């Protein structure tokens, strides 16, 4: 009898607690995620947000829901106009180009395409209609061709963020606009300026304010009441707070049942921002690392917790991804000559209780952890490790068993491989390429990081073999250590030497050992590897890795998840929102 799936819970930023997910319409889900302002290449803050919501999208589909997923493009904005003017380029063409670049990055990260990807410039009429309704309902006013939202006429303002207007001080961050009735009123429509794109409206030529676009487009595609609205924590205020005010002012029945927000990205434990200069685009990372390694790294931390980006962490993620695909390739190679026979003669073969337990546990853990507010780290760092260990143990046993016992193991491995692929697919980590193609892609990236070619590595292997033949063992060790320092590990398999990517290691330890860190324990038959170099600011979660015999584990990356009872409303200043690369760089 199939075990009943656990109830799906999501942390709701509005109620500050986890809640059981219940859609407005049974079997259907409407989800709106704030998209990018398309004026530059996307950064890993964007990757963090859209990978997180892609997992949510995939899991909802896995649960059998029919999902309408809307993710917008802001294609008219001050940043776009300013960048176009700097480059002497048409703002529409610049925005279109960076929309395409964003989609390319999302495809590399294996983020599924949303159902709709609306652009602001294609929905001006819907935006003007909503503004007119807000004015008609007494929550908006026009001044010199501009239209502002009146926060004084919306008593519930601040409900999502917990901010109170009386606790804010006018002019502290932004210069006071004397046209506004209240300093905290915000623009719904901006009067046209020379050289800027504009549209005609009842209030004069102009263009939409930032916040109104999402209210209008979400209502257009999902109606005024829908299930999920998401984005980065920096969007809670003012963007999502203002969205709630606009939508409810235009239509009192407006409601979003679940507000979902992802955590910030830091670099070497410092907040990542343009002003600090520790800012990385997705392209800068995927130029040297496989896109799935970046995705794996991001999933190694719970989506609501801050994720710390460092070279050492992305190296670990890359090595873990290689281990996953190498194990799957080893399994496929071992099963290739036995699959047909198993299909023909394996009907009587029974999967061992241990194998069945492993398969059932992986499925159960996967559903239980994702049902608990999408807890991906537990799957990567526990459930999958156990499954891959079982595969490696079974492959070793396969060679030693009689035919009937072999068929039992083969049947178990086939079923376990299928379950692993289902899990990887739901996490977006299952490539459309073959296992071997992914392994080759990972190896090419490691060669690029090392500044080497395949021929260079082959030459080093031959030089090492000659040195060993001549009993120049110190020279052989030196060659191996030099390559290991560049992220290339040599492995002696019988009379052959092969290579694979590894985390670059430091050849020499300093005279004084920092904090008495323990050495890495290596599997037998391997030359001890010196502890890898730590970044200038050591990530809090990095610990020495203990390797089990003959296996390479997927390394713990998880940062502690903030428990609901400990969470407080997130308050992000205008300056922080301006500099912080989170879900949508508005």
Structure description:
The protein is globular. Residues 509-586 have low confidence and may be disordered. Helix 6 links the parallel strand 9 and strand 10. It has 17 helices and 15 strands. The strands form five sheets. A four-stranded parallel beta sheet has the order 4-3-9-10, with helices on both faces. Strands 5-6-7-8 form a four-stranded antiparallel beta sheet. Strands 12-11-13 form a three-stranded mixed beta sheet. It starts with 8 loop residues before the first strand and ends in a 7-residue tail after the last helix. With 586 residues, the chain is of the alpha/beta class. Helix 8 (291-299) crosses helix 9 (311-335).
Question: Gyration radius, to the nearest Å?
Answer: 27 Å
How are strands sequenced across the largest beta sheet?
Answer: 4-3-9-10
Q: Level of helix content?
A: 40-55%
β-strand amount: 5-15%
How does the helix and strand content classify structurally?
alpha/beta
How many β strands by DSSP?
A: 15
Count of separate DSSP helical elements? 17
N→C terminal distance: 50 Å
Low-confidence stretches: 509-586
Globular, elongated, flat, extended or rod-shaped: what is the shape?
globular
Mean pLDDT: 86
What can be said about the biggest beta sheet?
A: 4 strands, parallel
């Amino acid at each position: 009898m199939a075990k009943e799936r656990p109830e799906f819970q999501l942390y709701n930023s509005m109620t500050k607690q986890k809640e059981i997910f219940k859609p407005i319409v049974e079997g259907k889900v409407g989800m709106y995620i704030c998209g990018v302002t398309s004026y530059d290449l996307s950064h890993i803050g964007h990757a963090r947000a859209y990978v997180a919501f892609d997992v949510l999208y995939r899991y909802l589909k896995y649960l059998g829901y029919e999902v309408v997923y809307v993710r917008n493009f802001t294609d008219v904005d001050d940043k776009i106009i300013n960048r176009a003017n700097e480059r002497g380029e048409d703002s529409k063409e610049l925005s279109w180009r960076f929309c395409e670049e964003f989609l390319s990055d999302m495809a590399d990260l294996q983020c599924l395409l949303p159902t709709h990807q609306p652009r602001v410039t294609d929905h001006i009429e819907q935006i003007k209609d909503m503004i007119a309704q807000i004015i008609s309902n007494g929550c908006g006013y026009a001044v010199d061709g501009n239209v502002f939202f009146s926060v004084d006429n919306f008593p519930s303002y601040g409900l999502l963020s917990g901010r109170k207007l009386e606790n804010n001080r006018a002019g502290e961050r932004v210069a006071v606009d004397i046209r506004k009735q209240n300093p905290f009123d915000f623009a719904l429509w901006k009067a046209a300026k020379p050289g800027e794109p504009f549209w005609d409206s009842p209030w004069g030529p102009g263009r939409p304010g930032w916040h109104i676009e999402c209210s209008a487009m979400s209502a257009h595609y999902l109606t005024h009441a829908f299930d999920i609205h998401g984005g980065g924590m920096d969007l809670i205020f003012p963007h999502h707070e203002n969205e709630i005010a606009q939508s409810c002012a235009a239509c009192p029945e407006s409601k979003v049942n679940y507000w979902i927000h992802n955590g910030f990205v830091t670099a070497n434990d410092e907040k990542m921002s343009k002003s600090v200069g520790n800012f990385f685009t997705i392209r800068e990372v995927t130029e040297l690392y496989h896109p799935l390694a970046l995705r794996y790294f991001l999933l190694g931390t719970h989506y609501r917790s801050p994720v710390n980006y460092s070279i050492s962490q992305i190296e670990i993620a890359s090595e873990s991804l290689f281990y996953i695909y190498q194990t799957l390739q080893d399994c496929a190679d071992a099963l290739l000559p036995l699959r047909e026979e198993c299909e023909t003669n394996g009907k009587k073969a029974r999967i061992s209780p241990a194998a069945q337990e492993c398969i059932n546990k992986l499925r159960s853990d996967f559903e239980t952890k994702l049902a608990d507010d999408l807890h991906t780290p537990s799957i990567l760092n526990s459930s999958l490790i156990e499954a891959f260990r079982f595969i490696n143990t079974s492959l070793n046993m396969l060679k030693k068993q009689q035919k009937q016992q072999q068929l039992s193991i083969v049947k178990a491995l086939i079923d376990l491989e299928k379950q692993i692929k289902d899990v990887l697919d739901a996490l977006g980590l299952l490539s459309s390429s073959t296992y071997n193609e992914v392994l080759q892609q990972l190896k090419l990236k490691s060669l690029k990081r090392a500044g080497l070619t395949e021929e260079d590595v082959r030459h080093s292997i031959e030089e090492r073999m000659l040195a060993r033949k001549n009993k120049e063992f110190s020279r052989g060790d030196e060659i191996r250590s030099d390559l290991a320092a560049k992220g290339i590990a040599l492995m002696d398999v019988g009379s052959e030497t092969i290579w694979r990517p590894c985390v670059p290691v430091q050849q020499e330890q300093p005279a004084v050992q920092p904090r008495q860190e323990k050495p890495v324990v290596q599997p037998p038959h391997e030359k001890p590897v010196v502890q890898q170099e730590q970044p200038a600011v050591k990530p809090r979660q990095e610990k020495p890795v203990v390797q089990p015999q003959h296996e390479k584990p997927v390394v713990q990356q998880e940062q502690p998840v903030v428990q609901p009872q400990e969470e407080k409303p997130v308050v992000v200043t205008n300056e922080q929102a301006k500099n912080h690369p989170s879900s949508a760089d508005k």
